[in-house]
Design a protein that fits this description.
single chain; binds nicotinamide-adenine-dinucleotide; six-stranded parallel sheet; 13 helices; Dehydroquinate synthase-like, alpha domain
Length: 356
């Protein structure tokens, strides 16, 4: 066996149906007296009201101002709310956008965070924060942004629409696929990656077919945790780089971008990462990984082209240039012509072509 380093992250995780009712105890455990509950507007706000109610006198109120890709302006507005309400902690109830806001606040204030994820983005168990300013998304790693406590309660995810289940689930799978060929990978993270992909690949179609069933939603949440853990532990590669560039430059929806691109980035790396792909294939219960991922996205009813999610074709060149200007390590060396061709196929919604 190759030598490796494994450094576990100290987040406390509570998993289980009804676990949200333990929120007040967890706040007390952290010594929190006035927590500001964060969410996105709309459905997210209803969940935030539920959590705020459970917190009772330990709630400082709700700030429903989270925005996708964590724009700095949204963080500045939230910091005013933190100050105004004299909050001594933040509690994020929602998807990666809400968690992102919580982390951005923690980075600037060092306030403790409790996160209750309602999508499969996985941000809640990573020390990573991506922020957007003037159309550029930059990512940093800091122990300050890692949440102290994460509560996974399937009940908070029961209303997650099938369309978001599909793309958010593909987003989670993307973390695990890239973890399997990560430069700094290790056997423990790879175990989690394989288990995470398998749990999601089994659960996602069942959720889309029977949205009211609890068990597959619980399995998907478990898979999402494992995949998020992989993202937090090891470095990501070309796939995540392309998604960050696309999200920052064109404000494309995060999970949908991952979902469209994953089969194509897997195809790009297929020849360079045979062992990782064999494990991913086993977890997916299907043959060649790029095709299996493309078929899974189709089965889940997810959009499979960048065109359909709002990207203009003339943006492709900018993505290639930005990717090449500050590349991530990748198992297959970055070749601008091959990346361009990958993006053209993804833009058109064509099936992935291995070794493009
Ligand atoms: P999101 O948080 O924007 O949620 C997507 C939509 O789903 C929103 O409209 C939200 O209101 C809705 N929603 C969420 N939970 C719901 C529920 N239970 N019921 C009904 N509707 C619900 O999207 P996301 O894909 O979860 O997160 C994307 C963001 O997270 C991006 O900004 C991305 O960069 C970031 N992210 C960061 C990391 C990290 O480690 N730093 C990891 C993954 C994602």
């Amino acid at each position: 066996m190759e030598p490796f380093v494994y450094q576990p992250l100290p987040t406390r995780v509570l998993f289980g149906r009804g676990a949200v009712t333990r929120i007040k105890d967890e706040a007390e455990r952290l010594g929190v007296k006035r927590a500001l509950v964060l969410s996105t507007p709309g459905r997210g706000e209803a969940l935030a009201k539920q959590v705020s109610g459970l917190l009772g006198e330990r709630s400082a109120g709700i700030h429903a101002g989270a925005v996708m890709h964590t724009p700095v302006e949204a963080t500045e507005r939230a910091l005013l709310a933190v100050k105004d309400k004299a909050a001594d902690a933040v509690i994020a109830v929602g998807g990666g956008s809400t968690t992102g806001l919580s982390k951005a606040i923690a980075l600037r204030t060092d306030l403790p965070q409790i996160v209750l994820p309602t999508t499969y983005a996985g941000s809640e168990v990573t020390p990573i924060l991506g922020e957007t300013q003037s159309g550029v998304k930059t990512t940093q790693k800091s122990a300050r942004v890692l949440p102290e406590v994460v509560i996974y309660d399937v009940d908070l995810t029961m209303d997650l629409p099938a369309s978001i289940v599909a793309t958010s689930g593909m987003n989670a799978i993307a973390h695990a696929v890239e973890a399997l060929y990560a430069k700094d990978g290790n056997p423990i993270t790879s175990l989690m990656a394989e288990e995470g992909i398998a749990a999601l690949a089994r659960a996602l179609p069942r959720i889309v077919e029977g949205p009211a069933e609890v068990e597959p939603r619980s399995d998907a949440l478990y898979g999402a945790w494992l995949c998020g853990h992989c993202l937090g532990m090891v470095g990501m590669a070309l796939h995540h780089k392309l998604c960050h560039v696309l999200g920052g430059a064109f404000d494309l929806p995060h999970a949908q971008t991952h979902s469209v691109l994953l089969p194509h980035s897997a195809a790009y790396n297929l020849p360079a990462a045979p062992e990782a792909m064999a494990r991913a294939s086993r977890a997916l219960g299907a043959g060649e990984v790029p095709k299996a991922l493309f078929d899974l996205a189709g089965r889940l009813g997810a959009k499979r082209s960048l065109r359909e999610i709002g990207m203009l074709e003339d943006g492709i060149e900018r993505v290639v240039e930005t990717t090449m200007a500050a590349p991530y390590w990748n198992p297959r060396p970055l070749d601008p012509a091959a990346i361009r061709s990958l993006l053209v196929r993804a833009w058109r919604g064509e099936p992935p072509q291995s070794g493009d």
